[in-house]
């Protein structure tokens, strides 16, 4: 009653053993593909981690530098500006990791929050009553009167351009992991599992436990079983080319690093622009939002924050170097894996599975 290992000679197998063999080949095939995928997946996951660590390090440096700008140059508003600064860099980080947000919305939201502070602490430092309604009016007015000139728009343009490739690379790497995971669990067809049993275990039914499949026979069976997986070849090659393009875009002129480390400068220029145009801004705001309560004299010392030195330059340089080295190492490895899916049958038939350099092997029917 054998269904797969039918042979004219007496056999040691039963139908139940054939079913056990089918379960075994399914398990072994999954394990073999997982073993092949392991190095590739390890490299991608490792690069995702290294990229995120280096990026977070750059981001922290840029955030510290921006905070130091307020604490040294704009101390009257430093305490209140801390939260908008933190939100800006959190939004940038989320954008890189693929969140449904944009660089433009993050930057403009930051300047919306910044304008009430600049207006009440620098342009009109005598304002005492900054109610929620008045603050909200200032936020909304920012969009119409554009107190920060072209600097806010320039910051959007520079950051969008440099962060785009980083965001795309992050998403592409995650997609690569998804593809690899899906191939590991691709279901074997009934015909395939029968063919694998015939190739690997039917010799056992004849007592031939040491004989192994012929190379050509193994390749034919594996190619048939993995036809759907090997169809990924063209798309995988294209995927590698895209990764190469994105890493080159990120490396070009070190745009990512320059854009992040230059955020504080853009904000500084924007604030200076608003201060220079203070009288015109005040006249417009008075018409739209009304005149707030004012008092004469100096600001409360509660708003004064101790000066901190800008630190972290060494960290920035190290993160920058680390990111560049990782990029080169990673893309070099990925380029070598271009033929990964085209050659998967050959790789599975390599090693201990087949008989090499021997005059005898199993061809599916007999020893040849």
TrEMBL record:
Keyword Cell membrane: yes
Annotated Gene Ontology cellular component terms: cell surface; extracellular region; plasma membrane; side of membrane
Keyword vocabulary terms for this entry: Cell membrane, Glycoprotein, GPI-anchor, Heparan sulfate, Lipoprotein, Membrane, Proteoglycan, Signal
Pfam families: Glypican (PF01153)
Entry annotated with the keyword Acyltransferase: no
InterPro entries linked to this entry: Glypican, Glypican_CS
Main location: membrane
Mode of membrane association: Lipid-anchor; GPI-anchor
A GO BP entry: regulation of protein localization to membrane
Entry's localization field: Cell membrane
Family to which the UniProt record says this protein belongs: Belongs to the glypican family.
Function: Cell surface proteoglycan.
Protein name as it appears in the record: GPC5 protein
